[in-house]
Amino acid sequence: MSHNRRDFIKYVVVGSIASGCPINHALLAEPTGGGPLVEGEHFSVCHQVRDGHSFPRPDATKKADVVIVGGGVAGLSAAYFLKGKDWLLLEKEDHFGGNAYQEEYEGQIFGTGSAYGYRGDAGDQLAKEIGLDLPLVNMPDPIIDNGRYAPDIWRTGINELPYSKDVIASFKKFRDDMMKIDFKKNAAQLDTESFTKYLAPYAPEVTKLWDAYGPSNWGAFSEDTSALIGIADTQYLLMGEDDKRVILPGGLGCITHKLVEALKPHYGERMLGDATVVAVVPDKDEVHVTYAQGDKITTVAAKAVLMCTAKNITSRLVAGLPNEQKRAMRKMRYAPYPIVNIIFDKPVYRKGYDNWCPGKTFTDFIVADWTIRNNPGYKPKYNILTFYTPLHESQRALLLNEDDCKTLAGKVLKDFQGLLPEFNVDPVEVRIYRRGHPMFMAVPGQYTQNRMIASKPMERIFFGNSDSGGPESLTSEAVRISQAGVEWANLVLAGKPGATELAERALNLALF
Ligand SMILES: Cc1cc2nc3c(=O)[nH]c(=O)nc-3n(C[C@H](O)[C@H](O)[C@H](O)COP(=O)(O)OP(=O)(O)OC[C@H]3O[C@@H](n4cnc5c(N)ncnc54)[C@H](O)[C@@H]3O)c2cc1C
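Above are the sequence and the flavin-adenine dinucleotide SMILES. Below is the predicted complex in structure-token form.
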């Protein structure tokens, strides 16, 4: 099966979806190339692990000083920071990148997840080090609702929101009230509360916007969002922190792509794809990591292990976790989160980078080539838009069914075409990239309490991944924590004291 066909449901749309016809099979042509249709991530072995299937655990036939489990941005950056050390990276997919993974259409690059970082954050610093200069987004976010476009939701554009005067007044009151809250001083209390408590006094349109913004950014609708995260993010937007956003086409997949390019020529034999780890078992002076690659099951003995998988997976792989820690890992909630990319062969929209569309099948959409659109000589053939389509946890199962995925992608297209009259254009291709559990949800307690318990290192096992950080799922946190993980591993390998304290400092550093 070719790589492309495994990674997205690819199909061509014919006819006009806005014409009122049924949207799925009648209008969506059969996938090109025939054969079985596709999935985003591969979950069969992981689901077997989850369901308690016991895999054979052969004796170790390989050794490595450091085994890295998971080849997303956390695992790749750990490999990068380990440089010449003796490491082995195991990734279950046939490609690296995890949730920050870029794709392309006839040479034009777009993202399948992770959208942007911030100037000077750990991801941006790493990007610079490997030769990527991420340009600023340089525009606040527009909103499109009620058939109207308004630039800049929270600052200069607040008077132009596509709502009545009363609703705009309510937005302003919300803005002023939120700015009065000292969220740093009250972090512990706010992190026990739901954001809905703070949204309740205002017009329903305010909640409607956060019910797009929250799921898109931290996987949780308002009711499941920690008030700490909601209020901190409101202040961040009001103070214009979003002016620091940086990115290239591909979203943060541009960083993982470049990391692979930097690592592969030197360390290709240490980077195993299609290698699903099924057990991580601490022994006396080493850790035995067992992985399945095709039909073959192999065990490697490591002096230290960096777990760069999400905790819902990690909790099922690592033996000997203290009960409290295992419970904390299992308590983490993850949003099902497909991404739909729609490719037009004519210019359809270039009026804003990240465009909020509350109340639709998708929450927002991004112009893939936004930060390079004005580069001299840049003449793109296609206008590629990336639609963020987070789902409720109860909808996760629909991602297992290909027809349901197609229907969902069709609804995204239909909703987009209905937003503004000029959007009623047929694309040349629609792609859906499905992921069942990619984004940890910023629920009450997760940031100040739960992750601290879940991420405590064991003697020879460090728990990385962006879900060790926060306050929401951030690529920069995955990188920052991997940097700490490598320092931790260096102490463990050298038999020096202080590894646990170092890891704890890294977890605490991000706290408000
Ligand atoms: C739709 C979406 C939008 C986002 N937008 C942003 C954004 O704008 N800015 C931002 O900073 N962040 C964003 N994020 C979050 C960001 O993408 C993640 O925080 C980051 O990519 C996580 O990287 P990671 O390496 O920690 O974890 P992952 O990407 O989850 O990597 C873990 C890797 O482990 C592999 N794996 C799993 N199980 C096994 C196993 N048993 N054996 C071997 N390998 C295994 C997986 O295949 C995966 O490659 C977004 C996320 C999503 C889903």
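Confidence is low (pLDDT under 50) at residues 1-9, 12-39.
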